[in-house]
Amino acid sequence: MIHLVTTHRLRILFTDSTVLIRGETGTGKELIARSIHAISARFGRPFITLNCAAIPFDLLESELFGHEKGAFTGAIAQKIGRFEMAHTGTLFLDEIGDIPLVSQSKLLRVLQEQEFERLGSGRTHRVNVRVVAATHRDLTEMVRRNEFRRDLYYRLNVFPVTLPPLRERRDDIVPLVVHFVEKFSRQLGKRISQIPQETMFALIAHDWPGNIRELQNVIERAVILSNDGILPNPLSPVG
C-alpha cells in the first residue's frame, strides 16, 4: 500500500510531521497509517489506534487523554489515554472529522505542545507522539461551516495524503487479491493453488463501492467456498 505515496514525497514520512489521510470509507487509510509507521524511526514502538466516530462524545476526551479515579460518574479507576499509550510511537486517529468542537481545542494543544492533563487531574503529562489522522469527510468544507477548527485543520494537514477509491486504481486489485488469498488461506487452513483467469478478470472489472474493505470480505468468502485449491468467483450468484 505504501506505493500509493509517490517516491519523491517519501522523505517526509521519515520525519515526525503530522499526516492527514483522506479517502472514502474502506480505501485502506489504516493500512497506509501502519505503513507510514513501519518506515519511520518510530517502527518497533507503539502504534495505537482510535476511531473517533466509534466513541460517544462524552467519553472521547477520556479515551484520548485518560482520567483519574472519581473524575466523573463511573470513573472507578485511573485510566491511561491513547496519547500516553502511544508515547514514543504513533497515534492513528481515524475519522478525525467526527471529533466535537468542544474537544478540538484540547487536541490542538497536545499536537502543538505535546502535553495534556488527564480528566480530573491538574498534573501535566508530556508525551512524544507522532499523529497520523484520517477522514472521509471534507474538512475544508467543515472549516467553512465552522464545524471544524481552522487552526486544528492546518496543524493536521502538514502532509496530506489522498487515497483514490479502488475503482480508480485497478492496478492495485491483483496484488490485493493475492495478499488477501494468502491471508485467509493461512487463517482458514486452506490451500489455494489457482486463481482462474476469469475470476481475476471479474474482480478487476467490479466497481468496488465498498473499496478495499469490500474486496477483503469478498475474498474471505471465496476462500471459504473454495474446493480443490481453486478460488471460485465470489461475485457469481450463490445458488
Descriptive overview:
The protein has 239 residues and is an alpha/beta fold. It has 2 domains: 2-163, 3-Layer(aba) Sandwich (Rossmann fold); 167-225, Helicase, Ruva Protein, domain 3 (Orthogonal Bundle), CATH 1.10.8.60. Helix content is 37%, strand content 15%. The strands form 3 sheets. Strands 2-5-8-1-9 form a 5-stranded parallel β-sheet. Strands 3-4 form a two-stranded antiparallel sheet. The protein has a two-stranded antiparallel sheet with strand order 6-7. Helix 4 crosses helix 6 (150-156) and helix 7 crosses helix 9. The longest helix has 16 residues, at 173-188. Residues 1-224 form the Sigma-54 factor interaction domain. GO terms for molecular function: ATP binding; DNA binding. Keywords: Activator, ATP-binding, DNA-binding, Nucleotide-binding, Transcription, Transcription regulation. This is Sigma 54-interacting transcriptional regulator.
